[in-house]
Amino acid sequence: MTNLLFPTDFSTNATHALNWARLFARKTGATITLLHVYQPILPDTTLPTIGDPGLGVTASLEVERIGQERLEQVATSLQHEGLSVQTDWRIGSVEDEILDVARLLPADLIVMGRSDLSTFFDRLAGSAVTDVADGSPCPVLIVPTPAEGEPMKPAQIRTVAYAMQSRTTRDDVMTQTDSIVDAFDAHRIYLTEDQLERPAADMIVLELYPQGGFLDSLLHPNRAAALIEKSDVPVLVYHQPK
């Protein structure tokens, strides 16, 4: 592994996921690219303006400046830990910019935090995570954030669980987990669909297969893919191109 992409919005979700980015970077020697995407809120020009219209522009520039400073602070902290780090700042659609950077690097792994999708804004963030997992040119590690009041689990890989599906082959499993098992001296287990609820593992690996359409998703719901939004342990997603 050479390039690890870590998109951050500086939230609790990102803080927990950063521990997993550290873990993989230390084990593989990969360079972490810290990415922050600023998605400006466009003003509604049909509404009357009250006061100085330039105030909104000034506030937007201040948010950008603060975000850039925080990005550099995180980078400096990781560099002091001995990790190789670079930064990237983008303005635009979060998922589009993440995928663009992933292709340009090119990234070997994207690490992203995921909330419990309990609020409107959490659901927006969750949508970005699933969109990235669906369109990524490389594997995506999706790290859940502990529920409020629950302790943060350590970033460690002792047991890797592979979520078996009807189309999964032995070659898929070996290709997607051998390097992890070897690097972390981990134990590998296999999960059938009825074992997905609470697996005794530190990380789940699965391949995301494209659905044939709305009818296919109704007749053949993918319980493994649903782990992206509900698993309480990190999920490493391999995306099969459509």
From TrEMBL:
InterPro entries attached to this UniProt entry: Universal_stress_UspA, UspA
Domain UspA: 2-144
Family: Belongs to the universal stress protein A family.
Record's protein name: Universal stress protein UspA
Source species: Spirosoma montaniterrae
Lineage per the UniProt record: Bacteria, Pseudomonadati, Bacteroidota, Cytophagia, Cytophagales
